[in-house]
Amino acid sequence: MGLVALSDCIRGALSYEAIRYPPILIYYANVIGIPVFMKFEVITIFPDIFSGFLSESLISKAIAKRLISVRTHYLRKWTTDRHRTVDGKAYGGGPGLVMKVEPILKAVNALRNTKPKSLKSKIRVILFSPRGKQMDQVMVKRWAKYNQLVFICGRYEGVDERVADYIADEVVSVGPYVLNGGEVAAMAAIEAVARLVPGFMHDAGSQTKEDHPQYTKPEVFTLGKKKLRVPKILLSGDHAKIKDWRDKHRR
Ligand code: ADE
Questions:
Q1: If you measure from the C-alpha of residue 174 to the centroid of ligand 1, how many angstroms do you get, rounded to a whole number?
Q2: If you take atom 7 of ligand 1, which residue's CA is the nearest one?
Q3: Which of 36, 103, 109, 105 is nearest to 69 (CA)?
Q4: Pocket-testing residue among 45, 98, 135, 174, ligand 1, by greatest number of atoms within 8 A of Cβ
Q5: Which protein residue's CA is at the shortest distance from atom 4 of ligand 1?
Q6: Helix or strand or coil: residue 241?
Q7: 183-194 and 57-64 are packed helices; what angle lies between their axes, rounded to 10 degrees?
């Protein structure tokens, strides 16, 4: 067994125990540097976007099982003016508004300072922006090693560049297209990282599902004049051949 597989094994075992004995195991996990749960902190001006996402399916189960926690933080809370301003006009002119640096810095600092002193929490601060590095599974696996991920969701025409330069540890784009803001990107990241938290996929099977073609009943599906058949090999019961076929068609 390779080192990675061994560490995955320990992480898995720890997380199941952590459901029953969180304080002891969390302490132990911190001593040996293996996180047993993941805290997501999302800084946003639209926290309600997350409510359906957090209350359904495996994400809500993982929250109930205390494998993950997801907290949304309303950015306007860290403003001081009467209008709770989080944006301003761009220097140099141009249409649209830019998100201000001060409230974001205050929010991030507040989150950095809330970790319990007894825990050596490993935090990563990520700014979502279409100008960032494109998110991929390698990045997601790296994030899964932290205890706490702070996601800053940009809006409007962008975010003051000093956030990218001095506050965020990384700037990430969910894909080569422009969204209205970072909230959808943050949800994609939460789901991708949460799937790697030991225990998350317990009810759902493998963490790598859907990397090869899958079929279920009916064996023959009629579409107009066409008969769409399940590949014969999958009906053969020959597990070695099925494995070969799946490996060949893996993406
Ligand atoms: N905000 C707007 N577009 C985005 C993208 N593609 N990725 C991350 N955040 C964004």
A1: 6
A2: 173
A3: 36
A4: 174
A5: 130
A6: helix
A7: 60
Beta bridge partners of 98: 88
C-alpha atoms less than 13 angstroms from C-alpha of 34 in its C-beta half-sphere: 19
Domains of the chain: 1-34 (no CATH), 37-194 (3.40.1280.10), 220-249 (no CATH)
Residue whose entry in the numeric block shows the structure tokens 């702070």: 150
State whether the beta carbon of 185 lies less than 6 angstroms from ligand 1. yes
Shortest-distance Cα residue to atom 2 of ligand 1: 179
Query: Best substitution site from 126, 173, 180, 190 to test ligand 1's pocket, by max atoms within 8 Å of Cβ?
Result: 173
Q: What is the mean pLDDT of each run of 10 residues along the chain (251 residues)?
A: 45 43 55 71 97 96 95 97 97 94 97 67 93 97 95 93 98 97 98 95 60 96 98 97 96 83
pTM: 0.82
- Which regions of 155-205 does DSSP assign to beta strands (E)? 170-173
- Alpha carbon of residue 163 to chain centroid: 20
Place of tokens 């902190």: 41
